[in-house]
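JOB MANIFEST
job_type = single_chain_structure
chain_count = 1
residues = 215
[input]
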Amino acid sequence: MALTTTDVLRWLQHLARTLHEQSAYLTQLDAAIGDADHGINMDRGFTAVNGKLAGLSDADIGTIFKTVGMTLVSTVGGASGPLYGTAFLRAGTVTAGKSVLESADIVALLDAAIEGVKARGKAQTGEKTMLDALVPALEAARQAQAEQQDIAHVLRRSSEAAEVGMKETIPMLATKGRASYLGERSIGHQDPGATSSWLILKTWADTADQEEGGS
């Protein structure tokens, strides 16, 4: 099984709906340790992305990801726009010209996205950020790909690892971003960026599962 351009577009449509539905939840998480706008910002950004998908049906996957990245940079406020925008732009670079994604491509695009986030955010794992979900997701995807799992299983393993990483941000002390201003008061709260990262990967795994099942 491989993922086509159509599958990627379907995932992004699903993601836009999911982030809209989870907007209040993400904002609630952000209210505890941030500016109480993460859900609003992500919803706005991916609503704008969704509005551009119809015009991308003939585009290659790299172009789709780059369009997502540029749209997020231009429409999402706070740190989320530049960080997620950079992630999708980097993913677009390594998938340029591709109309099909294999398991190895998932590993490559996650790796590129994470390096972009690290460079843009000057962050590492353990600092209570989106990287605490994304880096375990990459490691799980790499392991699943090494085991020659199909792409649906690679995405599911990646999503499950991101969920574990997301939950592990709860006891962490934030040392990056707005949450770091709270010091020890940031402990005991789930990071909203790690949560939205998990939602992105979960919806992709869910979409791939549906495609595999022929639904």
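[summary]
The chain has a mean pLDDT of 94.
The chain has one domain: 3-212.
exit_status = 0
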